[in-house]
Amino acid sequence: MEILKSLIPHRLARMTLVAFLIQICALLGLIVVNLVPGGQHWAIGMTYLLIYALFFALVGKVCETEQVDDFSHWWRATFCGLTFSMGVYVSFFDTLSIFGWYLIIMGTFHYSEYFATAITNPCNLSTDSFLLNHSPAYHIAAVLSWTEFFLEWYFYPPLKAYKLISALGVIPVLGGEILRKVAMVHAGRSFSHIVQTEKREDHKLVTDGVFSIMRHPSYVGWFYWSIGTQIVLCNPVCVVAYAIVSWLFFNERTYLEEHTLLAFFQEEYEEYKQRVPSGLPFISGYPIQEEG
């Protein structure tokens, strides 16, 4: 635990990372046992129970060491780890392998949002940082994508056999994920999941690094990540729907955020806006001429 403390100073980041990783180890252990020739179901079950016994023992030890009495962060990190692990397991099933890839992507994204916030901007860290409760629209979009996948998988299975197309979807997913996290790390305390209405004393306008190429790299990353998830699922309807809905969402979000940034930084942001594009296709943000 002391080594973990030295590597990851933030207490909640350490705890949730343990919860996330132990889920992965638990299910991976189950997979290994499953691959043993002539493996018995009772042996598989006992192995899984032993791994989870280790998990809860570790949870108790960490909570005792860290003096934790709130498990709200724990169970969300556990859920993300379980989603990732189930994705690994499902990816071994040929007809559902691409849905396994999707689960890996979702588990990674939601936990990495929390972990990146814990490392770079701990003052804003909360259970909302997982983005699991982002919005009702986000949940509806996810359910619709699952519905399309399983309807097409059941009625027209060949559509879900285009693994090359699914693999191509991993490119915008990885690219978007990396771009978003780079933006979060680079912005540090100036990054927030919520558009700020009041300027903090330590809030500064970040214009270097990836922000010198595009004004909203975190939005750009999420935009292409979301579309990429549907390419991974080979969901033709949701690829189009996600592109349209994501564009509308980020168009409005950019407009609102830039209105705030212009109020915070005035001429400094005006010059920055004129010099650097938003990065999002056909989205220009808040018109400067309307300010005031």
Automatic annotation (TrEMBL):
Its EC number is 2.1.1.100. GO terms for biological process: methylation. This is Protein-S-isoprenylcysteine O-methyltransferase. Keywords: Endoplasmic reticulum, Membrane, Methyltransferase, S-adenosyl-L-methionine, Transferase, Transmembrane, Transmembrane helix. Gene3D superfamilies: 1.20.120.1630. PROSITE patterns: SAM_ICMT (PS51564). It comes from the Eukaryota. It comes from Tigriopus californicus. The chain crosses the membrane at residues 12-36, 42-62, 74-92, 98-116, 137-155, 222-250. Its main location: endoplasmic reticulum. It is a multi-pass membrane protein. GO terms for cellular component: endoplasmic reticulum membrane. Belongs to the class VI-like SAM-binding methyltransferase superfamily. Isoprenylcysteine carboxyl methyltransferase family. It is found in: Endoplasmic reticulum membrane; Membrane. Catalyzes the post-translational methylation of isoprenylated C-terminal cysteine residues.
